[in-house]
Prior knowledge:
alpha/beta; about 30% strand; globular
Amino acid sequence: MKAEIFNIANFRVDGGAMFGVVPKALWSRVYRSDENNLMVLTLRSLIIETDKHVILVDTGWGDKQDEKFFRHVHIHNGEGLIEGLRKRGYTPEDITDVVLTHLHADHCGGGVKWNRDRTGYELTFPDAEYHVSRLQWEWAVKNNLREADAFLEENIIPISDSGHLNLVDEEKELFPGFSVRIFSGHTPGLILPVIIYNGRILVYTGDLIPTLAHLPLIWNMSYDIESLRTIEEKKQILDEAWENNYILVFQHDENVECCTLEMTPKGIRAKDKFLFSEITPCPD
Ligand SMILES: [Zn+2]
């Protein structure tokens, strides 16, 4: 298996919303924010090549909405979706599979684009199967007031209209060495990919543990639909990851791509922090 990571773009989000009930006096010591209380998040996507598949995990915001929308989320820097893939030797037609952790706009928007004359939408990756959990799909198309800003019809409906949608019903190995776990505290049916790579087990922590600062069990986003469930699910995956020496891969952390874990008097925390490109086989 070949695996790489790249940052599609940075965006800004309210620091208070990212840390829920945690006071700014605490979170501002571990994650920087600007004078407007905004913090920078990355949008790291994985690109994984196996014998038969080229798999892209999450697609960033995309570019279908208007200027006002993107001004609001302060998109900046990053490699861009298509450019980031191109630099690694892939065209959109090379992608066989797109795994969407969930359908919030910052995770799936890049998977659908305007057609040539801007009269409708088409898939950015025309030959790919798009994988979404059934739980998340049914939840997103039903929509709800709380997540209405995050579930945008133009990011979602064109996928099913294209006939390229695969609904994932349960946790399983989707591709050799690439399994999916399903969680629901952040939003029902959030997929976390678990990947065997270079003799290590990697968990792409998506929006369950968006940054290193979210390792403490109660440091959670106020976007989460069920906060108590997020706590339980984080405990479950962190216990498993610590016991088995997994590597966590962060999608949104401005500074840290990966870490291993250790038990401390305060609970499970980061041990070593490193780049994805530095992942090497386990020493034991
Ligand atoms: Zn989300």
